[in-house]
Specification:
11% strand; 4-stranded parallel sheet; single chain; 221 residues; Uracil-DNA Glycosylase, subunit E; 6 strands; alpha/beta
């Protein structure tokens, strides 16, 4: 299968990897999809990048890997295709509700955020059915690390929301003073009360964007 990636991302990435890496990555993916049940669907692997070209990125939210239950993964971190609101997303909407004094959303599809410039990037872009973190390997680590490095090098103001230790592992490569780095606990039920609730990230993000005369994100969906 031909894997489709937005041309502007492809141009930025083309000199970052050698030909062997690209060949091995796609060979491995083809084999995984041919022999196992893998999520998201192949055509959705690069959904997050395809929805938000580099020059449109305003916000980066880093997740870990796609949902591993059938019908849920759509290629966007924390987003869910089949309308089943997962606990972390529920807590994200609770925090937005508290910050903006609005009802808690029951939505699950975060495409409207992506369309406003929110890059919902998982660090592993695929997963084996019912096996979380099963594709957390060097292939995807190499790929997504380069994505974050590219974003760090962009001079446009970008807000990075780093929730949990996994996302915070990217801190050493985020050193561009044009960007805003926000850190908090992960929104998972296991950690949300240890620093995610009350973090104020969504208001802080929009205050930052507004200070650069950029349109803030409408978090209501």
């Amino acid at each position: 299968m031909k894997y489709i990636l937005d041309e502007s991302w492809s141009n930025l990435l083309k000199d970052r990897f050698n030909i062997n890496y690209k060949r091995e990555l796609f060979s491995w993916l083809n084999n995984e999809y041919a022999t196992k049940t893998i999520f998201p669907p192949q055509e959705k692997i690069f959904n997050a990048l395809n929805l938000v070209p580099p020059d449109k990125v305003k916000v980066v939210i880093i997740g870990q890997d796609p949902y591993h239950v059938p019908g849920q993964a759509d290629g966007l971190a924390f987003s869910c295709h089949n309308g089943t609101q997962q606990p972390s997303l529920k807590n994200i909407f609770k925090e937005i509700s508290n910050e903006y004094n609005i009802p808690v959303s029951t939505n699950t599809d975060l495409t409207p955020w992506a369309e406003q410039g929110v890059l919902l990037l998982n660090t592993s872009l695929t997963v084996i059915e019912h096996l979380p973190a099963s594709h957390s390997n060097e292939f995807w680590h190499t790929f997504t690390t380069e994505i974050v490095k590219i974003l760090n090098e962009l001079n446009q103001p970008i807000v990075f929301m780093l929730w949990g230790n996994h996302a915070k592992s990217f801190l050493p490569i985020l050193n561009n003073p044009n960007h805003l780095i926000l850190q908090a606990a992960h929104p998972s039920p296991f950690s949300a009360y240890n620093g995610f609730f009350g973090c104020g990230h969504f208001v802080k993000c929009n205050q930052f964007l507004t200070s650069y005369n950029l349109t803030p994100i409408d978090w209501r969906i």
